[in-house]
Design goal:
mainly beta, Immunoglobulin-like, Methylamine Dehydrogenase, Chain H, 3 domains, 6-stranded mixed β-sheet, 4 helices, 66 strands, elongated
Length: 831
């Protein structure tokens, strides 16, 4: 899919609402099977058909009754009544999705608790607040009661442990129990027409903890009662319109002095100062250039010394409380600075660049050095000093959370458990289900070798990875389509030959926006705005494939068939309704089908070379003839479909991600069951080819989740009854269908326990599912009466649900069937 498609769905999913669930697939009408000899009288056939609804139940499992002959009418009636009332087996709880703990999302705010050892808080762009109690080694979500999940700022009460505030996209929230719970504290803060009030910055008066200042999208507000009520403080700040206050700082020794960076429409910014606790403000302009102020820091040792970071003009310093300013770090600092901070020791000043590196000054900002690590490529957003260690720094970035223990010389990822990434693509290793490559929106590419317990950022910097793929024949060969907005790297296709450790740009595809990547062993197809590029030598050389296509067409979707490598499919931006196919590995193309609506996904089935699936915004399409003709199955909910993954082995099993959750179909897309992740936008879904029971779901804001589909045996129908004459040579057959409810496959064995040879089963073993067995009833030689047997089906996989499964089979033989059937039908007609 194109980058524009992902961006569009990112915005659209917010406005969607959850609709009532559809009935599960198990609630479909039961299938009834009856074997009768062809010689049965017509009246018997009619009466059997009228009574069959009570003779056979939908499904059921219960301990087998003693086998043998039941000769009385009472026994027949009792048995039929029992069959009619049989219920479905009691299953264990639904399989659950589990959060992997990554990849890390965008961290807007970091706050280190000076009163509680090891307590650190992080505010993220989409997943709320996270807390670490062990100095950043591990993190857990701490957002109970936090209705807003975009947390731009955090402020800790310096005098009351566990008391903190969060500035969100819906105002201010307060916690008095160290983030165990949150309550809204925004009364008096203005909101926009959509009910939002973006609180970009928060500061607490260090001398009077009940006084708090909030910089918002529509001005500055002050609370004097611990956040219970707020009042506007924009006198002098408001120039025609209320300003956006992104940066805010307070003088630690004279708390009546504040500094604020005010932006007006995103095009200009002015630094202001207040000397009366925010009641009035005056602009500070001497020596400053017009640039957006991103961060303000006041020296704790020299309060008159103030530093600001800007987007566009680097950093500035003032030694006279802001009256005059000088640009610092010229020739060393980059022009785009995300954050600046001042240590209480040795006049150390730190600056986090937004594009390149990290910088520090040991002489109050007079001279600067770059530490050498390209931490700027992770696109920092905030910088925090640890009050317990002058050498420890914390950096919140698009790439998660980073820590330095040596004043910024070296950095390590320290956000295990801080999820929140907006995952738009997932690819699973063909031989190891624990190895994944994941694309995070605006966060680059991440990889994990342990199923998501730990994550490593690929050395590709922060960019939009529109597509990632592995070569199924050589999993060390990986591809990534990258879009960079900073200009540090070139947009285009990147290739790794060591499993993602190192990456190189592909010169032929430089500056091309990659919308999709499809691979078969040794061959790769890359869709771009300039057409489809093909490599037949594992990425070494590339050619443009356009024979049979409109010239210079933008290719939006490309898919290869994992079973027949010669088959390739694509769609064009200029012709979104047209599906093109190549039968010769992309040498030539022809129009295969014209859809009624534009498709957003093409997904060939890995288990069937003739089977394809496609997706529009509201329907699933299925073709069983290689794409010539299609069936359409409207999705039963008012949700937007984002992702689809066919099962690698079971051709009718599909997994689906929408803007409101994940679903599974066991019948080729006709019906769907909600799997979980309700309310989450599941932008990417993938089934591991190495372990088809493992499913991965990438969400737009809560990282990557994993789902293990536990094998679950189901046998249909659950009970059977034969009503037959006992004359010689009369036989009847009925099918017994076995399948795995989880959509997978496993081996099985079946056997019949009966007092005589009247019932046989074929086959009795198998290596895969689904499977249809044949039951044959032969009453020859039996005395008239009622007989019962049990068929037991057992999975070869330990831990399979509902294994063994028992099916009760009943035979009513001889005249007793014809004699009492009308009475039975009348007696049970209302069941």
């Amino acid at each position: 899919m194109t980058v524009g498609y992902y961006l569009g769905m990112w915005v659209r999913y917010v406005a969607r609402g959850l609709v009532p669930r559809t009935p599960p697939a198990g609630d479909q009408p039961p299938r009834y099977i009856l074997g009768t000899p062809k010689s049965a009288p017509e009246w018997a056939q009619r009466r059997i058909n009228s009574a069959v609804r009570v003779v056979l139940c939908k499904s059921g499992t219960r301990p087998a009754r003693p086998t043998g002959r039941l000769a009385s009418l009472a026994g027949l009636l009792f048995l039929l009544a029992g069959l009619a009332g049989a219920s479905a087996p009691a299953l264990a709880g639904d399989d659950q999705w589990s959060l992997t703990g990554g990849p890390p999302g965008l961290v807007y705010a970091v706050a280190v608790d000076p009163l509680t050892e090891g307590a650190i808080y992080a505010g993220t762009s989409t997943a709320g607040v996270f807390k670490s109690a062990d100095g950043g080694q591990t993190w857990k979500s701490a957002s109970e009661g936090l209705a807003a999940k975009a947390v731009f700022s955090l402020a800790l009460d310096p005098s009351h442990a566990g008391n903190l505030y969060a500035g969100t996209n819906r105002g201010v929230y307060r916690s008095v129990d160290a983030a165990a719970s949150w309550t809204e504290a925004s009364k008096g803060i203005f909101t926009d027409p959509f009910g939002s009030s973006y609180v970009y910055s928060l500061v607490i008066d260090p001398g009077q903890a009940s006084v708090i200042y909030a910089g918002t999208l529509i001005g500055l507000f002050k609370s004097q009662d611990g956040g219970q009520t707020w009042e506007e403080r924009n006198t002098g700040l408001r120039i025609g319109i209320r300003p956006a206050i992104e940066a805010l700082a307070i003088d630690p020794q004279n708390t009546g002095i504040l500094y604020a960076g005010a932006g007006y429409g995103g095009s200009s910014s002015t630094l202001f100062k207040s000397q009366d606790g925010g009641d009035s403000w005056v602009p500070l302009t001497v020596g400053l250039r017009d640039a957006l102020v991103s961060s303000i820091a006041v020296s704790p040792q020299e309060p008159g010394r103030v530093y600001i970071a800007t987007r566009g003009q680097g950093a500035f310093a003032s030694s006279d409380s802001g009256l005059t300013w000088q640009q610092v770090g010229i020739g060393v600092l980059e022009t785009q600075i995300a954050a600046v901070a001042v240590s209480s020791a040795q006049s150390m000043v730190f600056a986090a660049g937004m594009r390149r590196g990290f910088y520090r000054s040991a002489d109050g900002g007079r001279t600067w050095e770059e530490t050498g690590e390209r931490i700027g490529e992770r696109s920092p957003s905030t910088l925090a000093l640890d009050p317990r260690s002058n050498a420890r720094l914390w950096l919140g970035a698009t790439g998660g959370l980073y820590k330095s223990d040596d004043r910024g010389s070296h950095w390590s990822a320290s956000g295990t458990g801080v999820d929140g990434a907006q995952v738009v693509a997932v690819t699973s290793h063909p031989y190891d289900a624990n190895k994944l490559l994941v694309s995070a929106w605006a966060g680059g590419v991440y990889q994990t070798n342990d199923g998501g317990v730990t994550w490593q950022a690929a050395p590709l910097g922060v960019g939009i990875a529109s597509a990632v793929a592995m070569d199924p024949g050589d999993p060390n060969l990986a591809y990534a389509g990258m879009v960079y907005l900073s200009g540090i790297r070139d947009t285009g296709l990147y290739l790794s030959r060591d499993g993602g450790g190192t990456w190189q740009a592909v010169p032929r595809l430089k500056n091309l926006n990659v919308s999709g990547i499809a691979t078969v062993p040794g061959r790769a197809y890359v869709s771009t705005e300039a057409g489809l590029y093909v490599s037949e030598d594992s990425g070494s050389t590339w050619r443009l494939s356009d024979s049979g296509l409109p010239l210079r067409s933008q290719v939006t979707l490309v898919a290869t068939h994992p079973k027949d490598y010669s088959l390739v499919y694509l769609t064009l931006d200029a012709a979104p309704l047209d599906l093109f196919r190549s039968r010769d590995s992309g040498q030539t193309w022809s129009l295969l089908h014209r859809f009624g609506n534009a498709v957003s996904i093409i997904a060939p089935s890995p288990s069937n070379a003739s089977l394809l699936y496609a997706v529009t915004d509201s329907a699933i399409l299925r073709s069983g003839d290689g794409g010539e003709t299609w069936q359409e199955f409207p999705f039963p909910r008012q949700e937007t479909i984002f992702s689809l993954a066919p099962h690698p082995a079971a051709s009718d099993t599909l997994y689906l991600g929408t803007n409101q959750g994940s679903y599974r179909s066991l019948d080729g897309g006709r019906t769907w069951n909600l799997l979980g992740l309700a309310g989450e936008a599941v932008a990417a879904i993938a089934v591991s080819p190495a372990d088809p029971s493992r499913v991965y779901g990438g969400t737009m804001g809560r990282g990557l989740w994993t789902y293990t589909a536990v094998p679950s045996l189901r046998v249909e129908p659950g009970r059977l009854a034969f009503l037959m004459d006992s004359g010689a040579g009369t036989t009847a057959t009925a099918p017994l269908d076995l399948h795995d409810e989880s959509g997978g496959s496993f081996g099985w064995a079946a056997q019949v326990a009966s007092p005589g040879p009247w019932l046989t089963l074929s086959p009795t073993t198998g290596a895969s599912l689904p499977m249809s067995l044949t039951l044959t009833a032969n009453p020859t030689g039996l005395a008239p009466g009622l007989y019962q047997a049990t068929v037991t089906v057992t999975s070869t996989i330990t831990g399979t649900r509902n294994s063994p499964w028992q099916v009760t089979v009943t035979l009513s033989a001889g005249p007793v069937s014809r004699q009492f059937l009308p009475l039975v039908a009348q007696r049970t007609a209302g069941w």
